[in-house]
Amino acid sequence: MPATIIRAGDPKAVKKYSAFLAIDTPKKMYWSRFLGKGEKSSMPFQMLKDLEKDAGDVITYDLTMQMTMQPVEGDETLEGKEDSLRFYSDEVRIDQLAGGINTGGRMTRKRTVHNLRKLARRKQSDWWARVFDEYAFMYASGARGINADFVFPTSYTGFAGNPLTAPDSEHIIYANKKTKATLAATDTMTLTEIDRMVARAEMMGGGAGGGAAGTDGNTQTPQIQPIKVGSEKHYVLVMNPWQAFDLRHSTATGDWLDIQKAVSAAVGTKSPIFTGKLGIHNDVVLHKHRNVIRFNDYGSGENVEAARALFLGEQAIVMAFGSPGTGLRFQWHEETEDRGRKLVITSSTIVGWKKATFNGKDYGIAVIDTAAKDPNA
Q1: Would residue 138 count as lying in a domain?
Q2: What is the reported pTM?
Q3: N or C of the chain: less Cβ packing under 10 Å?
């Protein structure tokens, strides 16, 4: 019995495979474990959907700063001393991204269009997940770095008018209290660096109360809010595998076992932030990933290899989708070329990324820069 073939560009196939891409891609993203939806989500990666149904290419979101007025005591006059509402705004822009596969003449003659669609869907969903993850790491780090296996060139500076922005001085620490210019090859990742970052995060805003608006009235620096997991609060640290190697080998065997055992004692370990974890130290869930941004120009000779570990709290990175006109986040397109002998399958989406920044300062994220090189070199 001959196979049933749905012609190229058939509306049923277009909608079906658009939906497949919309489902497959997030599942394959590394960052999907840190993804929350809506402005009140307690996750590092925040998805905004305001423009999925509405026209426009910019989403603006606000941070309301905490009150800082001194209370009026006794019968003193309150009038004229009231605090004002202070808002800081940030915005993320969206634009279209597209990719595709030209199946070639030979493949179209030997396979049905059904197999071509399945192959294209698998390859393109893998590619989209890779692209999305690379965007997330670049925007979180504020740099492209030297990572050799990215699809983006080392000269890349951002997408859709959302530039890659370097961490401000309050949201970066260097190993052993060094600077970029003084970092040595021996200044590697240790538990001390994680403790230093936790201490900085907890004291941001001068310890001024809880809630996402907690800030110090003088510095106006938003606190890095920990991720809420049940009754517990955690931060997340994503390291380069070379940083993770240095950390493990700078830690006594018994201490590293305690770090791993700490996960079993944590509440809410079914939370996705624990997926793929190395362990927990000082309420920081430890992760590693090869896409953590690397550099090779640190130190006085600008030749020390380094990596930028990401210290994450709530709502550090914003991702926004727009509508490609199909009611889905991805659009699937099929057409034939060369008098119908070649089938070209392309996909596209309207999207944007941004590190959340208010008043010129990062929100929900800080970084730890340490020396990091291949332990096999």
Answers
A1: no
A2: 0.84
A3: N
8 Å CB contact between 319 and 52: no
> For residue 191, is it within any domain?
yes
3-class SS letters over 302-316: CCEEEEEEEEECCCC
Which of these, 87, 82, 142, lies nearest to 295 by C-alpha position?
Answer: 142
What is the widest separation between alpha-carbon atoms in the chain? 93
Number of domains in the chain: 1
CA–CA separation, 279 and 286 (whole Å): 5
Burial class of residue 143 in the structure, from the number of CB atoms within 10 Å of its CB (0-12 exposed, 13-18 middle, 19+ buried): buried
Contact 281, 194 (CB under 8 A): yes
What residue numbers bound the domain in which 364 lies?
Answer: 179-314+358-371
Cα 131 from Cα 360, distance rounded (Å): 27
Is 240 within the bounds of a domain?
yes
Distance, CA of 341 to CA of 130 (rounded, Å): 30
DSSP character string of 234-262 = EEEEEE-HHHHHHHHHTS-HHHHHHHHHH
Please list the pLDDT of the chain residue by residue as tens digits (377 residues). 344 455 555 565 667 677 778 778 888 899 999 988 766 678 988 887 755 555 557 777 665 555 556 676 666 765 665 555 555 677 888 888 999 888 766 555 556 666 777 888 888 899 999 999 999 999 999 999 999 999 999 999 999 999 999 999 999 999 999 999 999 999 999 999 999 999 999 988 643 333 333 444 445 678 898 999 888 899 999 999 999 999 999 998 888 999 998 888 886 667 888 888 999 999 999 999 999 999 999 999 999 999 999 999 998 998 888 865 556 788 888 787 776 667 788 888 888 999 988 888 899 999 999 999 999 98
Yes or no: say if 323 and 350 are a contact pair by the CB < 8 Å rule. yes
What's the full length of the chain, in residues?
A: 377
User: Helix or strand or coil: residue 48?
Assistant: strand
Distances (CA, A) of 183 to 241, 297, 303, 327, 376: 19, 10, 10, 50, 21
Residue 134's contacts (CB-CB under 8 Å, 6 or more residues apart) are 150, 151, 152, 291
Evaluate whether residue 168 is within a structural domain.
no
Question: What would the DSSP string read from start to end of 335-351?
Answer: EEETTTTEEEEEEEEEE
Please report, for residues 67, 283, 298, the alpha-carbon distance to residue 172 in angstroms, rounded to integers and kept in the order given.
26, 19, 15
